[in-house]
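Can't paste images in this forum, so I'm doing it all in text. The chain is below; anyone willing to post the predicted structure tokens underneath?
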Amino acid sequence: MNPTYDFTGQVALVTGAASGMGLSTARAFADAGAAVILADRDITALQKIAGAMEADGRRVLGVECDVTDEAAAAVRSSVDAFGRLDMAFNNAGIQVPPCDAADEPAEIFDRVNAVNLRGVWACMKHELAQMRIQGNGAIVNCSSLGGLVGIPGRAAYHASKHGVIGLTSSAALEYAPRGIRINAVCPGTIATPMVTNMIDSGELDLAAAVADQPIDRLGEPEEIAAAVLWLCSPGASFVVGVALPVDGGYTAR
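Text version of the structure:
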């Protein structure tokens, strides 16, 4: 059983909230009483999700957001709608097919880093500007097991995810004295629509992915949500600048 949290009166922002880990985390924040800004490029999906959550009595707002174009609009929307911003999960990210490092097109490298690294930087920048005014807050950036290890054929993706960890640790040191905690979560292979697409396209072998995780299964989006909520909670009040593996033991080998 997961711990329960009371985030009543607090406001959370989740990027990449239309599916997968982002959606599970947004729902978990809402279930814990927080008002939630759901940010994603897919505004149609967000409107359906937000409508369903509102029908269940949750306080939510769907905001169209492309993190490659600085995410100030999403933060402004949270402040305009709910008056503050207490927690954020910078989750939006993309994956690309594996490629020999000598053959990687520059435009692919740039696109992956624009979303996975620069997008996290842009979101965090504007979240910190609001939290700095408040004097408190908690931010969780989404890295990956790919931020902790290397895998052949994944140089661009892993570069972006390693960068998220460097960004997280440096900003965490800067803002811890100001009452703002910043950490990263490093998911293993999780049963999300993105991973399903990779399996269906032949880009990822399901049996091999399971075998690589000593727990002998894929992770569930709700398990990442549980880690994010803990990092944002008072239970993690002394946790600053960590890159937390939630990977079924992949990086423990």
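The two ends are 26 Å apart (CA to CA). Residues 11-245 form a domain with the Rossmann fold fold (CATH 3.40.50.720).
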